[in-house]
Give the backbone structure.
Amino acid sequence: MRRAVHGGDVYGAARELGRAPDRLLDFSASINPLGPSPAVLRMLSRARTVLCHYPDPLCWDLRQALAAYWRRSPQAFIIGNGSTELIHLLPAALRIGHLLVVGPTFSEYTSAMARSGGRVSTVLAGQTDSYRPRLELVLEAMRQAGRAGTRSRPLDAVLLCNPNSPTGVAWEAGAVRTLAREAARLGLWCVVDETFADYCESVSILGKTLPPRTIVLRSFTKFYALPGLRVGYAVASPVVVQQLSEQQPPWSVNMLAQQVAVAALQDDRHRRRSLQFMDRERIRLQRGLERLSGVRAFPTKANFILLELPVGQQATRAVSVLRRQGLLLRDCTHVPGLNDRSLRVAVRTRRENDRLLKALSCV
Ligand SMILES: Cc1ncc(COP(=O)(O)O)c(C=O)c1O
């Protein structure tokens, strides 16, 4: 059996290298380096009772907690087994047969469309624009693809990852709202993946009323450092939430995950510490990477940095050399729109980042 993975496969790497997973430094998945909130760890130690019951199928408490956090109705939230589950529910739930993806970006959107037999068009930002997509070009692509008379199936939806992975580029909330409003005007769904927006809430569109036909995806994986528990959520109108829930397998979010996510969401102190840490360490790592000869480090709003190695080097080779030293990096060679010198590194703790800088300078 083989499964495509995006990074973060510490178990596979540990088997291959004959090391314990905790002997590896994983820069390939961008998880909060401070780890989960201490409240989460306390909750886990008390969680024995939840193992003997089926999980709450409505994820009631977590939806109430999210409703209070975002000042919205609990009916506007659906919880998924990671946001990945929700990405895969979208095509069938909303009858999306043709999706316009703004790239270069995360490949799971295309996988979800392939799985449902749908089609993907892309509008790609180029390296000369530092991979920042231009709003006018995306609007133009939406109008073109939606136009009657084109031979292929008209467009049903547009998807923007904001901040985007793996480029780290983020649009301001105003630009995202313009995109969403234009999508609604054209009768399209607008999906905004805000999985990394906890690190830059000002770019999120969740602060205000959502335009019609807009779905926002969020996750507890990255900022809350809970990738192993699998919790994500979507925010949309109650009608859309109902449509999504009709496609979801029963009990897909386990009870431990639901309870721990509530504890994580309510720990404001850990949130502030994590943001302060990331603001400092991201700049320090960025500067360190820029000092490596010929390496280009793209500006980022998230907790990872896209790198381009000097001409003549290949990301695949560098990733493989560092892997043998126990450092896992994300090779972005095969992300459509990026070149074979592109790789992504997570911002980890100061000491771990120094180890990465040292290892990269030898490569
Ligand atoms: C942009 C983006 N969206 C969504 C996901 C899925 O996250 P999860 O399913 O862990 O919530 C990822 C994971 O790598 C991601 O990078």
Remarks:
- Residues 6, 82-84, 106, 161, 165, 193, 195, 219, 221, 227, 232 surround pyridoxal-5'-phosphate (CB under 6 Å).
- The chain has a mean pLDDT of 95.
